[in-house]
Amino acid sequence: MRLRQNLWLTIFLAPALLLMLVFTVLPAINALSFSLYSWTSFNREGFVGLENFRKLLSFPFRDAFLSALSHNLLAFAGLMVIQNGLGLLLAYALWRQPPFLRFFRVTVFLPVILSLVVVGFLWLLFFDPLIGPITKAANALGIASFAPLGDPKYALLTLILVNAWRWVGFPALVFLAGLNSISEEYYEAARLDGATEGQVFRHVMLPLLAPAFTIIVILTFIGAMEWFELPYVMAGISGNPGGATDTMGLMFYRLAFGAASEATSNVGVASAISVVLFVIVGAGSALGSLYLRRREVEG
To answer: FRET pair for 279, CA 20 to 30 Å: which of 20, 53, 128, 210?
Structure first.
């Protein structure tokens, strides 16, 4: 009987493991091997060891790499506060079962199913300096020369807000599922002790939502570190304006496949970026998951 169960588990897990092997493990191994060689365009030459990593952390790549890394980290912080904070509030509002609950639940989640490329072009139209409705509204309010995507101070924040609009439904539904899984007895006991709604939310709901927070934090970290599609669509391959929205994903793409401002590619340094990104995502996810799981047990 035990052997039969193991056989069925193997059969059901094999497709997922095969996909992971083909699309995750093998590309990671290839990227590591590519980073250890010198390249002329896409022609591999001699073995150079860690030379590509040294180049990445030296002139002229170091400043651009550190800037891109800082933008990824800022995106993670911004999405944690804006996207996931708003998602938690929306989940609480839906949990209170307002009128037209099904309509609001669908409305909150609807942007998540849209293509991220479509979302990027849609918001580019909204911010268009000539026909964009948001630009027209800002001008009507007396905000002259409203162009957040063209201002280095606000471009990254604008992308974070657009990303939050697109993804806020996902943490909202995860938190809502977590709230629905909490036994009503905890709420009743807290109210009998005289706790206000704010105290119930702070001291009962939030601690019991720890598993949901673990999922959301880890997925947000992975998404922020691998941020590519939305900056590419809305800001271009160079992270305009002036590199204010550059990310590690964009820098990897520029170096691997070239850009309008760069006549040749540098596959070796690009592969070094992919390896560093893989290590950051893997180590960050593992350590974060370990810490958050421990907090769940302590809670």
So the answer is: 210
